[in-house]
Design goal:
The chain is of the alpha+beta class. It folds into two domains: 2-149, no CATH class; 186-339, Heat Shock Protein 90, CATH 3.30.565.10. Helices cover 67% and strands 13% of the residues. The strands form two sheets. It has a five-stranded mixed sheet with strand order 2-4-5-7-6, covered by helices on one side. It has a two-stranded antiparallel ribbon with strand order 1-3. Strand 4 and strand 5 form a beta hairpin. The longest helix has 75 residues, at 111-185. The two termini are 46 Å apart.
């Protein structure tokens, strides 16, 4: 293909331009070019072939110049400049080669000769330009799309890191506060709480960048609940139900934590908390319900943690989750359903 474009296409292009102009001129004047001297026809066709080689060489140099300068970044400004050079180079080349031929043969240079010489080659040059640059246009479009997606992805990753970071101060405050009160009552239990706290903190710090096995997430929640139980009221009634089939599925971490944390924060009334996790085919269901007292039921019970969770779900599971919050006079519940890919 390269050999054809280099050696055979230029003469074919030159002859195509020549015969198109001759056809138009003969149609307008009634002349038949095959009745002319074949010596003259040969000279004109040879000149046209040479013009074809020069044309292709100049345009390839032009394309390389723009590719080097703009580095495959396409814009309206660049296309406008390229077309301007195409028009200028074509105008100069045709008037150097074809115009003298028309002036020195037949009845001399007529107005229609000049118009045909400067319009027909220009149309072919624009077609040639479009075909040659279509690949460059496509590559530039793809590169721009990739760059835009990278910028968008980087922005989303930054936002996700910010949202995750907002969990840490709240979590640290609650855990340290729990350990603080334990130190006065039971040092041994306080040490156990420190161990659990270190495990929880390690999970938050190192296991957030990729999807994790849901069994890890469930173990994390159990440790978190155990830590919260140490500072909860003795009359707390805790109901935990974790489906044994939750093993092997992949999920993004720390999506369930805000719901559990919210339940311990606002539990009141009958002091009842229910946490249930289940799986059905490629759907994971998670439900947290806690009783509330009269004061809590009249106040706002879903703070920044729930708002951040909603935003993280929008970013991580767009169109693949269901999140529902229900507030009643004596209870607050949150239900989350994640739709996983079949291979997860």
């Amino acid at each position: 293909m390269k050999a054809f474009l280099k050696y055979f296409f230029p003469p074919l292009y030159g002859l195509l331009v020549y015969f198109t102009i001759r056809l138009l001129l003969d149609s307008a004047t009634g002349m038949k070019f095959w009745h002319r001297s074949w010596t003259l026809n040969t000279i004109e066709m040879t000149t046209s072939v040479i013009m074809g080689y020069v044309f292709v060489w100049l345009f390839q140099r032009l394309f390389r110049y723009f590719d080097t300068r703009w580095q495959n970044q396409m814009s309206y400004k660049r296309i406008g400049k390229e077309l301007g050079y195409v028009f200028l180079l074509n105008l100069i080349l045709q008037n150097i080669t074809l115009t003298p031929m028309a002036a020195l043969t037949d009845d001399g240079l007529q107005s229609y000769d000049f118009i045909d010489i400067n319009t027909i080659p220009l149309l072919y040059a624009i077609i040639y330009y479009g075909i040659c640059r279509s690949s460059a246009f496509l590559n530039a479009y793809i590169n721009n799309k990739i760059l835009l997606e990278k910028i968008t992805n980087d922005k989303l990753q930054t936002e996700l890191k910010f949202l995750k970071a907002q969990y840490h101060p709240h979590f640290l405050f609650n855990a340290l506060n729990t350990i603080y009160f334990q130190m006065d009552e039971n040092v041994k239990e306080a040490k156990k709480s420190v161990e659990k706290f270190s495990e929880l903190l390690r999970y938050q710090l190192y296991d957030q960048h990729q999807k994790v096995n849901i069994s890890q997430e469930m173990e994390y929640l159990k440790n978190f609940i155990e830590l919260q139980k140490t500072r909860a009221s003795e009359k707390l009634k805790l109901d935990l139900q974790f489906d044994e089939q939750l093993n092997g599925q992949k999920v993004y971490p720390l999506l369930f934590l805000p719901l559990v944390e919210n339940a311990f924060k606002y539990v009141g009334g009958e002091y009842r908390i229910s946490v249930k996790a289940s799986v059905h085919e490629n759907e994971i269901g998670f439900m947290v319900e806690n009783s509330v007292g009269q004061i809590e039921s009249d106040s706002k019970t879903n703070g920044i943690g729930i708002e951040n969770l909603q935003r993280r779900l929008d970013l991580l599971y767009p169109g693949k989750y269901e999140f529902e919050i229900q507030k009643k006079a004596d209870s607050f519940s949150a239900k989350l359903k994640l739709i996983l890919n079949p291979d997860e």
